[in-house]
Design a protein that fits this description.
The protein contains 20 helices and 26 strands. By secondary structure, it is an alpha+beta fold.
């Protein structure tokens, strides 16, 4: 074996810096490439024919081989042999050596370890003839590479083929001296390979996503940016990679947003705050909407690696969301308008009901101006009455100072706002009286008025009145308010027409009442008499009748009856009953015979009334006696002077029910201090069906009021029944109270 080195001296090798051998080494793009670069450097340094390196990472999952040869033919042959070795093939008999120790094989073709591996290949059908030929007479230095963390890091072999100077001790010493550098270079090859592969996978992944990704390292440099980031912002990404983030983002990214100042403010807020996570939306100058997510990037142990920024184009989603919000807002506004319209319609319906329930024109006038004030805020309202002679006078007003004299709101047909509307019978509206000087206002109307509207109220062929509304705001009356006023005006017209009819019927009813109902009871010595009449539901006349008269000297007749029905038709029947009975009583003083004769006379003349109930009593002042007949009427109450009381029962059929059975007369002592109270079923049936006032309460009320004057007794009984009903009386009421006194 030659003791002289072939390409490097022992002295030169051991004196070299441990970083000089592989200084400036450009690692390959893969593990094999890195090992090949190391092999090239070793072959150049030792000036040998072949350098072969095997390496694996710590977990043994990744095994690589690299070699360097002088000539392509040898490279092809050696490449085939190396490629055929299994990854599990060990370090060619170097197991017994510690890391950094080398062994010299003078002839590879005869080395047992090498021959064993070649035999293994041949058993697998691989032709090793060329390899055996190349190895015959070739010398080799083999050295294992180990670290504490990776005892099976790998091995390196340097070969000189036959015909070349043999490799000896000096080359082995040089290899062992350079072992630390070689081991470090090989040790770094798998992590570098993993890093490259990870970066390649990441770059491939980022290339496939439509989201823009930018990574800033801990030094503030842009370490990674994908193509989508540039496409979203319209900038070349190659101008960003490797630049300081603050500089690149300010110069290239910031101007691409519609609000660069806001982008700058956010960037300043993030500066020096690595733990902040941000999610916001930004609009580009091209009109796109980008969602930005910026967060710190950390490794598995939580160490900060930098910051990642992800941009997502949400333009379509954003616009869809905006459209949905706009539609929801429109629907909400529509719903609100519908609710307001429904509320408005309900309010107008209530106002119409209130107007319709008014019985007089004065009530209609007051209700109308009150409802206008409620529906048209911050306004003043006047209702003018148009007289047939042409005078137009204010009859109801709201919103004016207290104590305003309505007589001052006066004009003539054809003059002023009300006069012009009354004459034309058309709506007049002025949006700003300052812009329309032809609008003539009285001093009271002009008070703080900027806009005004006047609506005619018509009855058949004439203008009945004018509804005028004044506002201190220009353009105060929009389409909605005009619709409200028009509808209220229409309801008011119907209510006024009804009020006119009611007033007409009332005048007729008052005349009929004067003709049909009994006058004040007569003053008769020995008797105190009081009567009371109330028609149902506020009507002027009804179907109840009462009468007190003297059919003969010393005798006083008391009649209380009830005709089935109400109103004017029933009132006609009550008048017929009353006058027929008074006529019959001229010649007959027996109550039973009088009722019997009356029943036969009115049979067939009752019409819709069908029947009449009646109580007829005749007080004989000389005999201190009461003779009575009850034709289907509620039993009266009699209270004697000693305070005892009872009811007059045993009724006969009502009038109009003709039968062979005669009516019966009854006698009752009626001396001084005796009291008779007769009523119709309007009292006893007051209240709900399940809890009517009833005959028992009627009797109790009479006994409680016995000591009062007869007029107070009548009013007290009526008031007690009305309080019990807790509502207006729904049936006519007639009452007669007679007390026998000394005289």
């Amino acid at each position: 074996m030659n003791d002289e080195p072939t390409g490097v001296s022992v002295e030169e090798t051991t004196a070299s810096s441990p970083f000089e051998l592989f200084a400036g080494l450009d690692p390959g793009a893969s593990l094999e490439g890195s090992l090949r670069a190391i092999a090239e450097r070793l072959r150049e340094t030792f000036d040998v024919d072949i350098v072969v390196i095997r390496a694996q990472d710590e977990d043994g999952r990744r095994v690589g081989r690299g070699f360097s040869t002088d000539g392509p033919d040898l490279a092809r042959t050696l490449g085939k042999v190396l490629a055929a070795f299994r990854p599990g093939t060990a370090d060619l008999g170097l197991t017994g050596l510690h890391g950094g120790s080398a062994v010299v094989w003078p002839d590879l073709g005869r080395t047992p370890a090498v021959l064993a591996r070649l035999g293994e290949l041949e058993s697998r059908g691989i032709d090793t003839t060329a390899a055996r030929e190349a190895m015959r007479g070739a010398g080799c230095i083999a050295m294992p590479l180990r670290t504490a963390a990776n005892p099976a890091l790998g091995a390196v072999g340097m070969i000189n083929l036959a015909g070349r100077p043999p490799i000896g001790r000096r080359e082995r010493a040089a290899a062992e001296a350079l072992a630390p550098q070689t081991r470090l270079a090989v040790q770094n090859a798998p992590p570098h390979d993993r890093h490259d592969r990870t970066r390649q996978v990441m770059e491939a992944l980022l290339a496939t996503t439509q989201n823009g990704v930018l990574v800033i390292d801990n030094d503030g440099l842009i370490g990674l940016v994908n193509r989508a980031y540039g496409d979203l912002l319209g900038i070349p990404v190659e101008h960003l990679t490797g630049r300081p983030a603050a500089e690149g983002l300010h110069d290239l990214v910031r101007p691409r947003f519609a609000d660069p100042e806001m982008y700058e403010r956010i960037a300043v807020r993030l500066e020096g705050r690595p733990n902040v996570t941000l999610r916001d939306q930004l609009e580009t100058i091209d009109g796109s909407i980008l969602e930005r997510f910026s967060a710190p990037a950390r490794d598995a142990e939580g160490r900060l690696l930098g910051r990642v920024v992800i941009l997502s184009d949400i333009t379509v989603r954003h616009r869809a969301l905006m459209d949905a919000r706009s539609l929801a807002r429109e629907n909400a506004e529509l719903l609100q308008r519908e609710e307001e319209r429904a509320l408005e319609e309900l309010t107008i319906a209530r106002a119409a009901h209130m107007l319709a329930s008014a019985l007089t024109r004065a009530d209609v006038h007051d209700h109308l101006v009150e409802q206008v004030m409620a529906l048209v805020p911050d306004a003043r309202v006047v209702l003018f009455d148009v007289r047939r002679r042409g005078d137009i006078i204010g009859v109801a007003a709201r919103g004016f100072p207290e104590g305003t004299d309505l007589s001052r709101l006066r004009t003539r047909r054809g003059t002023g706002i009300a006069g012009r509307v009354a004459e034309s019978r058309r709506i007049l509206i002025c949006h700003d009286v300052h812009q329309e000087p032809q609008i003539a206002l009285t001093p009271m109307e002009a008070m703080d008025t900027r806009s005004v509207v006047a609506i005619p109220l018509e009855l058949v062929d004439r203008a009945y009145g004018v509804l005028a509304v004044y506002s201190s705001t220009p353009n105060a009356f929009d389409e909605r308010i005009m619709r409200i006023l028009s509808e209220l005006g229409q309801h008011a017209e119907g209510a006024i027409q009804n009020a006119l009819l009611f007033e007409h019927e009332r005048r007729i009813a008052e005349g009929l009442q004067d003709a049909l109902l009994a006058e004040e009871p007569p003053i008769i010595p020995g008797l105190e008499i009081a009567t009371l009449y109330r028609a149902a539901g506020g009507a002027m006349v009804g179907g109840d009748v009462h009468d007190v008269w003297q059919p003969a000297p010393g005798k006083v007749a008391v009649l209380v009856g009830d005709v089935a029905g109400k109103g004017i038709p029933a009132a006609g029947t009550t008048g017929m009953v009353r006058f027929m009975l008074e006529g019959l009583a001229v010649h007959e003083h027996d109550p039973a015979k009088l009722i019997d004769q009356l029943s036969h006379m009115i049979a067939g003349r009752l019409g819709d009334a069908a029947f009449v109930t009646a109580f007829l009593g005749i007080v004989d002042l000389e005999a201190d006696e009461l003779r009575w007949t009850n034709a289907g009427h509620p039993p009266p109450v009699v209270v004697r002077a000693d305070g005892s009381s009872h009811t007059l029962e045993a009724p006969d059929p009502p009038l109009g029910f003709l039968s062979d059975a005669p009516y019966h007369s009854h006698r009752e002592p009626f001396g001084a201090g005796s009291l008779l109270v007769v009523t119709t079923d309007g009292i006893t049936e007051a209240g709900p069906p399940e809890d009517q006032f009833g005959e028992e309460r009627f009797g109790q009320t009479v006994r409680r009021l016995t000591a009062l004057p007869v007029h107070d007794i009548a009013n007290g009984v009526y008031d007690a029944a009305r309080r019990h009903a807790d509502s207006p009386m729904h049936d006519d009421v007639a009452l007669a109270v007679v007390r026998r006194v000394a005289g």
